[in-house]
Amino acid sequence: MSQAEQRIGMLGGTFDPVHLGHLRSAVELHEALSLDRLHMIPAQQPPLRGRPQVSAQQRFELLAAGIGDTPGLVADARELRREGPSYSVDTLAELRAEVGDQARLVMAIGFDAFLRLTQWHRPERLFELAHLVVIARPGYNDPLPASLMELVEHRRVDSVETLMQRPFGGYLSLELPSLMAISATYIRECLEAGKSVRYLLPDPVERAIEQGGLYRRRE
Ligand code: ATP
Predict the structure, then answer these.
(1) pLDDT tens by residue, 131-183
(2) What is its pathway (predicted)?
(3) Which residues line ligand 1 (CB under 6 A)?
(4) Which residue's alpha carbon is nearest to atom 19 within ligand 1?
(5) What is the spatial distance between Cα 150 and Cα 48, in angstroms, rounded to a whole number?
(6) Which residues are CB-contacts of 60 (< 8 A; sequence separation ≥ 6)?
(7) Of the residues 32, 100, 129, 174, which has the maximum number of CB atoms within 10 A of its CB?
(8) Is residue 66 within 8 Å of residue 202, measured between CB atoms?
(9) Rounded to the nearest whole angstrom, what is the distance from the C-alpha of residue 62 to the centroid of ligand 1?
């Protein structure tokens, strides 16, 4: 494969905090798509959520601790350096400028995030920059709303091979082998309630949360 056709993925999120659902999905996605690297990019100020309790810098540090030396996964702080809301379309435009117009660029999102895609900033534009790969997530089987169908249906492909024939513009729904019903919401609830989060996130992340006193209920 030429350098120009390298395969680059992006998995954005709040990572509040990063957990094994994110990380195992990232490893399996890296393998399923034969990516050269997958950028995991914490949002500075997620446009569709309230303000997270833990700072963006702390969320990034937890992410970097969680990734450790995992081959092919990159903790990418670029959205932290940008002012204002984090729009994926801006991040993809930056990545596209870096990797050139022939690289296969993939934005991966979980099915829950996918259901809100039409509310994102310039969703049509995403497909001029990247492919969209949607990862199944346990507990989310809702049918696609009509507006979302309209956005993605004509872009649908059924295999990684077909997706990777072009640099951008396709939509693939992917069921990765290890479906994990772990959410950051549940982890924050456990931590607030003083319950164990063992085996939901990597040990270094658990330790950093404990040492920093993060996600504790404020008295
Ligand atoms: P929260 O519970 O706070 O909403 P979350 O666990 O959904 O958080 P996000 O940071 O919002 O985590 O997720 C980042 C991306 O990873 C999203 O596209 C989301 O759909 C996906 N994702 C999160 N958890 C999983 C999981 N267990 N399996 C597969 N994908 C996941």
Answers:
(1) 999 999 988 888 999 999 999 999 999 999 999 999 999 999 999 999 899 99
(2) Cofactor biosynthesis; NAD(+) biosynthesis; deamido-NAD(+) from nicotinate D-ribonucleotide: step 1/1
(3) 13-16, 21-22, 25, 109-110, 112-113, 135, 137, 180, 182-185
(4) 110
(5) 22
(6) 15, 42, 75, 77, 80
(7) 129
(8) yes
(9) 15
| Closest C-alpha to ligand 1, atom 21 | 110
Write out pLDDT tens, residues 84-114.
788 999 999 999 999 999 999 999 999 999 9
Whole-number Å distance, alpha carbon 112 to ligand 1 midpoint, is: 8
Cα 183 to middle of ligand 1, angstroms:
6
Pocket test for ligand 1, best of 112, 179, 199 (most atoms within 8 A of CB): 112
Query: Which residue's entry shows tokens 């609830």?
Result: 189
**Fold (topology level) of 3-179:** Rossmann fold (3.40.50)
Q: Where in the chain are the domains? A: 3-179
**By percentage, how much of the chain surpasses pLDDT 90?**
84
Q: Is the ipTM of this complex over 0.95?
A: yes
Q: By C-alpha distance, which of 19, 38, 48 is closest to 189?
A: 19
Task: Count the Cβ atoms, other than its own, within 10 Å of residue 89.
Answer: 18
> How many angstroms does the Cα of residue 18 sit away from the middle of ligand 1?
9
